[in-house]
Amino acid sequence: MLIMRLMVVLLALVLVLSGGMYIFTRDRRYLRFAWQTVRFTALLLLLFGLLFVLERYVLVGWRVFV
Q: Which single residue of 27, 29, 36, 66 has CA 20 to 30 Å from 55?
């Protein structure tokens, strides 16, 4: 859970910085970088969420049967 919170805080920081750089320079590559960062973070959060569900329900349920 701590890793997921840290990722969200870092994502917010990256989005604010890249948005500020876009406003300052009007270079669209900062928007592209922000979008790629959002996609990558969403993928990682989904992966961590699936691992959390796997640990929480599947492995604990498996221990009941063993």
A: 36
